[in-house]
Amino acid sequence: METRPWLRTMKARALVRLWSIFGERLWIIVNMGFPILSSLALSLLYYSIGATSYIGFAILGGVMVAFWGNVLWSMASQFNWDKQEGLFEIYLTSPASMSALLIGMSFGGIIGTAPSAAMVITVGWVLFHPVVAASWLAVALTFLLTLASLYAMGMTLSSLYLTYGREAESMNNVLQEPVSMVSGLYFPALGAASPYPFAIQAVASLVPLTIGMDALRKSLFRGMDVGSIWPSLVTLAVMAVVFLVISDFALKALESKGRRDGTIAVRIR
Amino acid sequence: MALDGVSLGVNRGEIFGVLGPNGAGKTTIIRILSTLLLPTGGSASVMGFDVEHEPEKVRHVINMASGADKAGYDFISAKRNLWFFSQLYGIEPHVAEERIGDLSERLGLTKYLDRKFYALSTGYRQRATIARAFINDPRVVFLDEPTIGLDVMTARSIRDFLKDEVRQHDRTIMLATHNMAEVEAICDRVAIIDKGKIIAEGSPEELKRKLGVPALVMEVSPPEKSFDALTQVAGVRGFTSASDEERGLSTIQVVVEDDGSARRAEEAMAKSGHKIIASWRKETTLEEVFVAMVGRGFKEREEQDGD
Fold first, then answer.
1. Contact A94 B132 (CB under 8 A)
2. Would residue B44 count as lying in a domain?
3. A-chain residues within 8 Å CB-CB of B68?
4. Over the stretch A140-170, which tens digit does the pLDDT of each residue have?
């Protein structure tokens, strides 16, 4: 596909996501309110037991859980929902690039989730004043690479979920809570401070969120710079590329299989 | 539904109907031609592009819509939905705006463009779906039951729009439907399909003319589901019936070869213990063409397949 139509498709899909997120007042409240609540609850817990150095982790976790929820519920499931609604057929019979649609969804999701993340940071900062010793370049790079790899993972899941029916939703539930737990959204999950044995840490490291959270904690609260956390940055970059490649491959393979088997447009009625 | 030896050619600038009962294979034809499904044998092309080997080229010249879907994003307006779908084709934003305006006006959608998709009534959602199918100025449009579930006036306005699109913009439309009146109203030619096979093809007028004499309609009492006596009558090519329990009668439409066959059919019904309340002859429709070819009507065919 040529560049300009590709970009138009991507931009349009991003806008649809933003219009949907900000088009309903209730959704805005839910999107912004939920991440704050869990983050505040943990911050209060850490505060009440005197573990104030962990409060920053809870706030950071609240920020990232907003993006993780968006990746699962608005990225991974999206093509499956589109398929059930008859929208996927429209995509397929148009010359639009599926990758452009997925990347558009990602940008829309990231921009649409940013206000929730900003709200968590603002409220957390005002109420708890967490101690920060940031290496800001490292924080920015880690944050961007974590989002890139997370949303690339969402693109892969979106492609794979095309073969799913109602199980897609169950799969999201399966992924949401365990991943939140082992990836260390609210406490360190990797290294000596982790409560998990090495085997669980190794498995958890397959999810970009775990690597990203660990590197964010190091750069934001311990002031570690790019030179110190580069293995995490490289891992996140590699994960982003690998997930993008898998997503593209999976989409093409599934489209081809779906056209051959007649399952590409089959829906649950 | 698997297709069996289907061979069709659709001329540029015509509305071509694919008519058949549910499950006959109409949607399969549309899905193959719109690149959603690969044929397991044979070949198919659209505007000279092979659907199996050149799907990208096909997708540049086609669009499709299914009446059963009314697909769009619920939480954004009809206008934004249309704009979004136009961008899938890489259309310049100002051109997209013009097309949305033009299509909406002609489909009577303008007043409702700013409403969220979920807030549109069935009729207006369907108009938006039809507008979407023409948003990329396609050469060929595939429509699957485009007026299903719509009131008479909305269906008529959509049919008028489709006719205009073909006449004024040199488009070709393939229309899969089980609505015979729709085919007779707008299709230049039609293929009647049953169990994956094309059983008749031609203009609606040609097909009806081939049947010759008008069909016989009888209202008989008591109501029954099967009228085996009719199957024994020479010159009866098939029949379809509907029971009306409330009125306590059945209406039978019998496709006959000549007037003598019609008379014998009435006699057979009387002999089999049925009281003929009324009988008359009616102008041939495409349903009679189907009955003549298959022996039973759409409804009976669907019930048979459901068993």
1. no
2. yes
3. 86
4. 999 999 999 999 999 998 888 887 766 777 7
Q: How far is A266 from chain B (nearest CA, A)?
A: 11
Closest to A250 measured CA to CA, from A151, A147, A149, A162: A162
Q: Residue A113: CA atoms inside 13 Å, Cβ hemisphere, count?
A: 24
Domain that holds residue B221: 208-306
B59 contacts A87? CB cut-off 8 A? no
**So what's the pLDDT on residue B7?**
86
Does the beta carbon of B217 lie under 8 angstroms from any beta carbon of chain A? no
Average pLDDT over residues B102-109: 96
Q: Which residues pair with B64 in a beta bridge?
A: B142
* Domain identity same for B178 and B98: yes
Is pTM beyond 0.90 here? Answer: no
State the total domains in chain B.
Answer: 2
B138 shares a domain with B196: yes
Angle at A140 between CA A178 and CA A40, to 5 degrees: 45
Whether B250 and B160 share a structural domain: no
How many CB atoms neighbour CB B131 within 10 A?
Answer: 26
Strands B140-144 and B62-66: parallel
How far, CA to CA in Å, does A172 sit from each of A69, A106, B147? 9, 17, 37
Shortest Cα–Cα distance, A167 to chain B (Å): 22
Distance CA B92, CA B58 (A): 20
Q: What is the CATH number of the domain that holds B229?
A: 3.30.70.3100
Same-domain check for residues B146 and B104: yes
- For chain B, the straight-line distance linking the first and the last C-alpha, in angstroms and rounded, comes to 16
Do both B258 and B147 map to the same domain?
A: no
- Residue A66 DSSP class: H
Instruction: Write down which residue in B202, B233, B261 finishes a domain.
Output: B202
Q: What is the ipTM of this complex?
A: 0.88
Burial of B61 (0-12, 13-18, 19+ CB in 10 A): middle
Beta strands per DSSP E along chain B: 15-19, 45-46, 49-50, 62-66, 140-144, 172-177, 189-194, 197-202, 215-221, 236-244, 249-256, 275-282
Residue B202 and residue B190 in contact, taking contact as beta carbons nearer than 8 Å = yes
pLDDT, tens digit (0-9, with 9 covering 90-100), for B181-196:
899 999 999 999 998 9
